[in-house]
Amino acid sequence: MPENTSTGPSTAFVFPGQGGFDGAALRRAKQTYPQVQRVFERLDSATDELFSRRISDVLFGPEQTDLRGLLAGDSWLSQVAIYGAGLAAYEILTDQGVRPDVLAGHSLGEITALVAAGAFSAEDGVRIVAQRVAVIERHDGIDGRMVALSAGADRVRLLLGLLDDPLLAVATENHDEQTVVSGPDGVLDQVTAIAAQLNIGAIEIDAPFPFHTPALAPAAPEFEAYVRTLDQRRLQRPVYSPILQRHYEPGEALAGRLADHFVQPVRFAAAVRALHRDGVSTFVEAGGRAALSKLVTRLTQGSDVRSLPTLALDDGDRLALDATLRELRAAGLADLDGTSGSGPGLAELLAPTVASDLFEAYWKAHGHEVRERVRRDVEAFAQEERRQGREQAQAQAQAQAQEQEPAPSPAPAHAALDRDEVLGELRTLYAQALEYPEEVFEGGAQLEAELGVDSVKQVELLSRVSQRYELPPREADFRLAPYNTLDAIADFVIAELERHPEPAPAG
Predict the structure, then answer these.
(1) Which single residue of 6, 113, 421, 454 could bond 105 by disulfide (Cβ 3.0 to 4.6 Å)?
(2) Strand pairing partners for 13?
(3) C-alpha span between 36 and 40 (Å, rounded)
(4) 306: left (phi over 0), alpha (psi -120 to 50) or beta
(5) Average pLDDT value for the chain
(6) How far apart are CA 204 and CA 180, in angstroms?
(7) Is residue 228 within 8 Å of residue 199, measured between CB atoms?
(8) DSSP letter at 447?
(9) What are phi and psi of 183, to 5 degrees?
């Protein structure tokens, strides 16, 4: 294949989906790279809020954890573990100076890619992953599985056509000789039996549900509505979707697109070829195992493409990430000093009098702390800028109103609310959202233990309460557990209104 002369992107990070977790490799990385612990500390805050359980205690506890063990537990465990491993790999790579030109994800990995690109916070990424699991379980999507067939997508579609089951579908097209199908258990038994007669190999996929199938269509609207309640930000890096077969637009509304993923197939092979045509010559798998890097190698065979794993152990029981970073540095693609890129590097900007090797050692040990401090400061700065902008706009509006007519006597932004009134409004809000009769929502009834409202749904409803009463954003250390009754939520609303008599600014 002739050398690619495109001026497009050269390095892509690809984030794995189902099966993309290697517990032993993640533990090994945690011993060397502090980014692993920092990422999972952020994820712990979300899993503790949602499930009263820290994901780190499961993955890094005294007992070794593998993917099969996670799949045997609660459904969210494997999904958050895969997501977290991909995000940790991304933080390690970028802290080591690797600058991806484009990000892409395989199924679940597309959520990781969007979070890495800045569309959502790491904590909201956990909430999205957890809600993805919760809505599927609520809509009985659990009754099915995924099977990889050793045949191309066209041949597999012909095979599925023999059974003519509307819930049976091609889920992913990995390469020309591997296609994954999703569907109900009984029908997939027939698929594997027919495949065996045709000498087509079949392998079960390590996944808790049959993703990317029409069976999940009823769950998509609820998921979309939830994602709309989260704070979406503008993408800071390009993200290519193997499902949409295009780049996301910088300000594109993502809730609907992520909901579409429930039923649309992943065309990974086509995505890799499209990125290669655009100029990508280095693919780095940011996450567990090495399945995607092997797929890329197979899809680009005969070209000059470099395909590298990270959180996987090689045949010598060595962490692949270490060798990948050495290769990227040798290629000039991992440069802590920034000298391989255009413009001044980090060392020149931050410590011009310090030797480059000393700065590299410092950045490896403390770069993640600097990045986290800058992230927090920039977010605080942006919030302050938005607050000042809102205050200025409000002042201008008030001035214009005063010019037009005499100002009425000032009134409090929130009228004094009676607790029984708040409790009644909450009862109506929760009853309408959950389609329960209002009378079941007694003030002291436990939402989860007695009414079956899971923690993910409780977070969504509490967000609606905050919008209804214009409450300020909840503190970072906010915990859901104490607010598991309408009595407690009513007390919380009244206390917040007393602390913040002015409505919380929108945005």
Answers:
(1) 113
(2) 103, 284
(3) 6
(4) beta
(5) 85
(6) 9
(7) no
(8) T
(9) 170, 180
Report the C-alpha gap between 206 and 226 in whole angstroms.
26
Q: How far apart are CA 212 and CA 180, in angstroms?
A: 10
How many Å apart are CA 409 and CA 187, to the nearest integer?
71
Choice between 372 and 472, residue whose per-residue pLDDT is larger? 472
Helix (H) or strand (E) holding 239: strand 239-241
pLDDT at 405: 54
Contacts of 184 (CB under 8 A, 6+ apart): 143, 144, 165, 167, 168, 210, 215
pLDDT for the residue 1: 33
CA 86 to CA 78: how far, in whole Å?
12
Amino acid occupying residue 338: G
Q: What tokens were used for 8? A: 């497009």
Say which amino acid occupies 449. A
The model's pLDDT over 197-239, given as tens digits with 9 standing for 90+, comes to: 999 999 988 888 889 998 899 999 999 999 999 999 999 999 9
463/230 Cα distance (integer angstroms): 9
Nearest residue to 163 via CA among 191, 195, 189: 191
11-15/282-285 β-pairing: parallel
User: Please, which pLDDT band fits residue 406 given cuts at 50, 70 and 90?
Assistant: low
386-423 residues labelled b (16+ CB within 10 A) or e (exposed):
eeeeeeeeeeeeeeeeeeeeeeeeeeeeeeeeeeeebb
Structure tokens at 156: 């597999």
